[in-house]
């Protein structure tokens, strides 16, 4: 099981280094822009790409390069808060510490006396009688696939949000794990597409998607929600056969 997980994570690292994170097109290590969609490609050499690979090997997924800026901001904010606490303390002559008190004024709430009211008398003899519930016999209808295994509607074109793309070579287990994680993050209509079955997608990938939208504007408006759920590279994409 550990070897399979390691192979999946190495496949994810290879996909991040050799394909475009937006459309999944192949790229060269020194290529700066995607030839398919024009995206400014992330670097694959240097300290940041090395941190990206270590993250994927340890966690199994990567939220995006923005995570390092967020962590740095958190460290700076924590250091600033600690400094502010220290500066609010003053040491007197004998070495004891005096903490400046904060004065808070408290206003007593005004109590409102409830007004006693006499409930109206209702004649229950004229009320209608509730009908007896009807019982329907028979088997319940089939349930649709659970979230994380949502199937794109047959013969329907539209727009969606691509979360992650994996090469088809040993990429399906990683795609299903990512779909389950997206469903647990409360993203809706999450599933996996075989890109080779759709003319609008680059063939040879398993594409983890969320949502079925009639127009590009609708999909673009929902991209921010997918990124806040931990998928920093999410983008809108047309799905057409």
Shape-level CATH architecture of the domain at 158-239? 2-Layer Sandwich
Largest sheet report = 4 strands, antiparallel
Query: Strand order across the biggest sheet?
Result: 4-5-3-6
Counted by DSSP, the helix tally is 5
| Secondary structure: number of strands | 6
Q: Can you tell me the residue ranges where pLDDT is under 50 for at least 5 consecutive residues? A: 130-142
CATH topology of the domain at 158-239: Alpha-Beta Plaits
Q: Which geometry do the CA atoms define?
A: globular
Strand content: 5-15%
Distance between the termini: 36 Å
Order of helices and strands: HHHEEEHEEHE
Overall average pLDDT = 77
Report the helical percentage: 25-40%
Global structural class: alpha+beta
Radius of gyration: 29 Å
The CATH class of the domain at 158-239 turns out to be Alpha Beta
Question: Going by CATH, what is the homologous superfamily of the domain at 158-239?
Answer: Sporulation related repeat
How would you characterize the overall build of this protein?
The protein has 241 residues and is an alpha+beta fold. Helix content is 32%, strand content 15%. Helix 1 packs antiparallel against helix 2 (47-59). Among the domains are: 2-61, no CATH class; 158-239, Sporulation related repeat (Alpha-Beta Plaits, 2-Layer Sandwich), CATH 3.30.70.
Set down the secondary structure blueprint.
Elements: H1 2-18, H2 47-59, H3 66-87, E1 89-91, E2 97-99, E3 158-167, H4 172-184, E4 190-194, E5 205-213, H5 216-228, E6 235-239
Antiparallel strand pairs: 1-2, 3-5, 3-6, 4-5
